[in-house]
Structures are given as C-alpha cells and as structure tokens.
Amino acid sequence: MVGIENIPRDKPVLLLSNHQNALLDALLIATSIKGFAHYLTRASVFKNSFVSMLLRRIQLIPVYRIRDGYGNLVNNNEIFKTAVDLLNERGRVTIFPEGSHNLVRRVRPLSKGFTRIVYNALDRNPESDLQLIPVGVNFNDAKECPDSAAIFFGNPITATKYKRDDRNEAVVELKNDIHEAISQLTTHISENGYEETVATLKSMNVNFLDPKAVNKCIANNFKSCESKSKSRTKWLRKALQFLLKLNQWLPYGIWKLVIQPKIQEVEFTSTFRFAIAITLVPLFLIIMAIILTITLSFDIALLYVISSLLLGLITIKV
Q1: How many domains is the chain built from?
Q2: What is the pTM of this model?
Q3: Is residue 267 part of a domain?
Q4: Using CA atoms, how far apart are residues 197 and 182, in angstroms rounded to an integer?
Q5: pLDDT per residue over 261-283, tens digit each?
Q6: Residue 252: helix, strand or coil by DSSP?
Q7: How far apart are CA 48 and CA 40, in angstroms?
C-alpha cells in the first residue's frame, strides 16, 4: 500500500480506481483506507436478496448500466443523489469508472458516470473542496491462489479545477486526466500487441506489483526492465499447497467440483474463492475440532486447529 497519506481526512473524497478483480478490489481498498467509505458497484451482483443485504451492510451501493436494461437506468438518479449527499457531508465514495471489471492489465476507457457525480456535487455545493483520488489496484496474478496485491493512491486532484463554462470540454479533460493518473498507478499495456507484451514481461519475471517500473520497461521497449529474484522455495510452496488442500479436503472439493465450474466470469474466481475461505473453511475446522474432541481429546482438537491455521499462514507467506 503506497500513498495512503494522499487521502485527506477532513474533505469530501471521491476515490477512482481501476477494476480488475470483481468484489476483491472494493474489499482491498476498504481494508487499506482509514475510516468508512461507500462503494458504487454494478447492480447485477445485488440480484439475490441475501447477497444484496450483505453487500449493502458493507457500504456497497448498486449502480445500473445499459446492459442491466434501459428501464433500470432511471434508478441511478437516486443512487447518484445518495453519492452526492455523502460527498456534501464530507464522506468518501469509491467508484470504478471503467464501468465493469476485466483482468486485462490495462486501464480501459472511463464512463461518464463519475463525472456526473462530480458536477452534481459541485452544482449543489459550489464551495465544496471535493478531492479526486486516483487509485491503482495491482495483482501479481489475480487468477492464482495465493496471490499478492499492491494498492497505490495517487495525488489528490481538486474537482473545482474542472469548473468552467464549457462543461463538455471540461468533462473530456476530467476523464482524460483521471485515466492518465490511474494508468500511472497500475500496469497499463495497450490493446495493440497485448498478449505478446504480457508474455514478454512474464518471461522477464517483472514485478507486476511495481507498476511504475513495469510501465517504464514497456515504454523503453523492454530495454531497462527490473526482474524479480527467482524463488528458491517453489518446491516448498507446492508441497505446502498440496498439504493444505489435503487438510481442507471438503472445502477444496466443494470449490473445485461444485462452485468453480459454475463461475461464468473469470473475474469472480478470486471473489468466490475468498468467500469459501472465510465461510466453509472455518466451519470445516469447527466440525473437525468437535469430532476430534469427542473421539480423542480437546487437546488434540486444539492442536489440529492451530496446526491448520499455521499451515495456511505459512503457505500464503512462502
């Protein structure tokens, strides 16, 4: 986590982040910043009433897109009003202005939705000192488990900078500035030759958690690239992962055989895997502890639980 000090504590803040890894992006930002923030996320994940209740409890607010149906777009009026009210109360709101998630290592074109919130906030409170904070969420390999992530918070941009008579021109400049700012905080590979560039970077073993170095590497045509030191414990990591899967055979089996095959969007893989880790895994440990206590002893059950937790922690850290 870099640049957390760039988020002011006594001013309204609109955090604008790239969006690769579904709900994990919001969770990572939420656990990085101090204090509460609300998050605008796509409405389609709120379809299930139970899921909707949980998401709203962690400050997620549904926002509708054209693909959700034109009839639903009118609901955004109230949602944007809620966001503006929060900002006028010096609150924090996080938006993923790309409008959707995608695992590509690139900041995609930004939608106009966030600019609407910016200008609504300024129109309702011309004296607002609204601060726009670009955010770059970076993953080593979002499809792998375990994985590593790095979050970069950019320098604040004062929203009043974009108050002018020609609003259309100002909106274009605002979108371009935010796109450029986010692109500097995460690996940004152009669509042209994307697969070849990614393959070259991986072959050079670059550190995708250091987007500034990776972007410099690309800009210099791979002539000044920094490589990570190769791990000497790869065999140990694989052995520990095998033991962890063996130890958590039931949650792992449910994941591999029941849940993972039903995931339609690869971007949700990490989100559902995380959900399994914080629900089924603890439940499985509790059940196993009860069985061991009844059949053997409490001491053995306690030893099993502690050993399982240490195995998981060591596997992640190696």
Answers
A1: 2
A2: 0.87
A3: yes
A4: 20
A5: 998 888 889 988 988 999 999 99
A6: helix
A7: 17
Show the tokens assigned to 272: 């559902």
Using CA atoms, how far apart are residues 136 and 19, in angstroms rounded to an integer? 9
Does 168 reside within a domain? yes
Do 146 and 77 fall within a single domain? Answer: yes
| Domain shared by 62 and 128, yes or no | yes
Q: What is the pLDDT of residues 32-57, one digit of tens each?
A: 888 778 888 766 666 666 666 666 66
Rounded Cα distance, 253 and 73, in Å: 40
Give the domain extent around 288: 234-317
d(CA 131, CA 117): 12
Alpha helices in 33-156 (DSSP H): 49-57, 75-88, 113-124
* Residue 282 preceded by cis peptide, ω within 30: no
Is the residue at 218 inside a domain? no
- Write out pLDDT tens, residues 96-148: 999 888 999 999 999 888 898 899 888 888 888 999 999 999 999 888 887 88
